[in-house]
Every structure is written in structure tokens, then in C-alpha cells.
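Notebook entry, structure prediction.
Reason for the run: the old model in the group folder had no record of what sequence produced it. Starting over properly, with the input documented here first.
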Amino acid sequence: MRSICLLLGLLALFGQPLYAAQLAERVHEERLENGLTLLMLERRDAPTVSAYISFRVGGANEGAHNRGIAHLLEHMLFKGTKTLGTSDYAAEKPLLGQIESVGSRIDLLKNNPAADQAELETLRERLTELQQQHKEYVVKDEFSRIYAENGGVGFNAFTSKDQTTYLISLPANKLELWAAIESDRLQNAVLREFYTEREVVREERRRSYESNPGGMLYEALIANAYTVHPYRNPVIGWDSDIANLSLAEARDFFKRYYRPVNMVITLVGDFDSEKAKALVTKYFSAIPSGTPVPRVIDLEPAQRGEKRITVNFEAEPDLSIAFHKPAMPHQDDYSADLLTDILAGGATSRLYKRLVVEEQLASSVHIYGAPGSRYDNLLVIGATPRHPHTVAEVEAAIYAELDRLKSEPVSAQELQRARNRLVTDNLRQMRTNNGLARLLSSYAAIGSWRYLTDYAEKIEAVDASGLLAFANRYFSANNRTVAVLQREVK
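New structure, fully documented this time:
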């Protein structure tokens, strides 16, 4: 382990430009006729492959009528196809039609104050009966079972503001199995168990946000920091959104956007690129191109004064402060990365030393970018006061450190340490097939994977005067949103 860490340190200091050049040369990028982007990087260290499928669609691409649909679809695409996840699709299909008919009727009536409540109750009882009958045909978790039986690990998915991604790592000789399963999922997905899964997502929301102090504070912060841009809405959707998502909307969203024109397949591991391309072409080229995801045109107006929100909840006090800033590949985003490390990048960072170690005002402090990366976003500073200190004391100490950044240039030594740590962290993530596939896939979906190849060069170009300018440009009261979690005063 010590030798690995030493090697990473040396690479960070001397080898990153060379590694970046090698990465640029080793990534094979192909474009199929239907618009699908294929990224391949051969690594023969071990007979495994990490396979990522990312779609350039997420929570930011939803409207008022379908907030939360991308996240719900993430769940639904684990439910199977016409051949997987069912014991008899021919017998199941008419039952699915009945379930949708009754479920749609319930959705139409449930928000109508004048609706016949007796009819609603009858429909709900009928839906329960149909869902019970449907269980006879459902084969649970068949994707997971097949992958696990064939050595697959890490089978998962995630949805963000900007993208939706499905991933798996598996033995190299099972790559064709992956291609067969995933192409089937895109062409023949059956959105079975829709109404029960919708309730599962509502429960996920209650658990992660409505009864979770951290989730509650984060959601309040983001919703108040943005006025216009869809980044203000939670990826999971608001509860009333989820409760009213329809199967027809989900099916339409899927057929329009989860298609090759919006799709990036990333393969990293032990394979031959020409053979892998032929495999992907064989299984995915027949899928229709689909509709390009429209770019979000809602522009967030410049903030003209501090926004402050208080969340009352029976939990320890907490604090989050957000500042608007540009997203990648704007040069200021690289400055934000460096300041993130300088302020809260470990035990020697400025905020950690002052708040946690020296003055013991806080039990923790952290900084992160949110809520997305495709459009202008936020730099968020969070801290948890240590009893008996207050949120006000912690907040004042944070502002004092930010003001210091506005007036005192960061020393050359401190700046170089931050550069080294950022580059080393990047290299560390690239060590594994899965880590590199995740980075390539994510950056390709939101912009360009080549962001990775010149990251060290861009970081190196940021000097102390650039950080000083950033601090003065963005760390202002007019540009900040403050969210405070406190126990309700009774």
C-alpha cells in the first residue's frame, strides 16, 4: 500500500501530463449510425470488463407534469422485458393492460373533489386484485440473478440532474451476455409493477428527505437557491409529483430519450476494441435513434440578495451555505475545485483547522458542488455546530475565512499542495476499471470525456490571483443562499 501511495504521489507531481496524453490516445471513440457513442479503453491487467450505459437525460430535463419520471424509470428498468422477469408474457400482457386501465382511471379521479368516492374505492379494490393476480407471472430480480450467476458484480444504476446510468462489472468472456441483456432491456422493456413501484419511490422520498434531517436541509437549500432553473427540483420529485406520475408518461419519456442519440456506452477492461465494437453494433445498431434531449433554456437570473431559509426539525442544528458559480468547463470551475481542497480538503485545510481543531466550533465541515454539472451550479459549504456553540458562531467563522481569501493571496505552497491532492485523487479513481469507466461515462454524458485529459494542465494554470478573483466574484452576501436546520422553538 505504501508503494502504491508513493507511486500515486510521484505521478501527481511528474507523470500526469504523460498519463493524460496516454489516456487521450488509448480511448477509442466510435459513433454508430443511429447516434450511439461508444468509448472503449483496453486494459489487460485482469480478465474483467466494467460496462457503463449513460443517457444524457435526468431530473433537469423534466417539466412540471413529469418531475421525478427519470428516477422512477431507473427503478422500472429493473423490472424486466418480454422474456426476462416474466414466467409467461403472453398471459401476462392482457393483465398488464387491465392494471394500466384501472390505475389510470384512479389517477384521473383521485384529485377531483367531485369524484364518486364509492367508484374510487371499488377501483382501488379492483387494482389490488389485479396486482395480486399479476404476481403469478412476475419473476423478481432476474437481471441480478443472471449477472450474479455469471460473475457480475456491482449491478446498479443512478439518476442525477444531468444523466441516468446503468452499470455492471463482469468477466471479460461474458461481454456478449451483457450486450444481449442490455439491448433487450432497451428494446423490450416491460414497465411492470408500475403502481406498486411508484409507492416504493414515495416511501424512498419519505425516508431520504421528509424524515431525514440532512436530506431535508439539502432539499430546502437547493429549492431556495434556484428560482427558475429546473435544478431547483429534487431528482426524486416532490411527493405530489411521484403520486401522479402516469405509466403512459413513463413509457413516452423512455421511448423518446433512452435511445442511442442520447446514449454513451463505456467499456474499460480486457477486450479487443474491434471485436467489442462489432458486438455493440450487432446488439444495439437496430435500436431507433430516438429524440435528442432538448437543452435546458431556463436561465437562472443573477441573485440580488441573500436568501435564507430555516428548517425546523427535531435534530441537531446544521448549516449549509451555497454560492452560485459557473459549471465545467468554465475556468472558474477549476478554481472552485482548488478552493474546495484548500478550505475543507482534510485535516490541514483552513476551515477544518479553524472550526474543528482550533476553535472547536464544529464537529464537521465539508464542501461540495451541487446539484448538477451541465449547467451553472453551486459551491456548498456545510458545517455541524459542536455543542454548546451555535450556528451563528459557525457561520461567522466561515465568512471570516472566505473574507481572508478575498484579501490574502493563497501561498504558493498551499496552492501546490491542493493541486497535487486533486490530481492524485483523479489518478486514484482511474486505477480501477470501474473507476475509470465511471469517469469517462459521466464526463461524456455531460460534456466531453476529454475533460479528464487536460485536467492537470487546467488546474496548474490557476494561480493565486485567480483564486483571489474567484473569491471576490462569488463569495458575496448577494450571491449566497443559507439554509439552517434547527429544533423548533415551542
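Summary: Residues 1-15 have pLDDT under 50 and may be disordered.
The old model has been moved to the deprecated folder.
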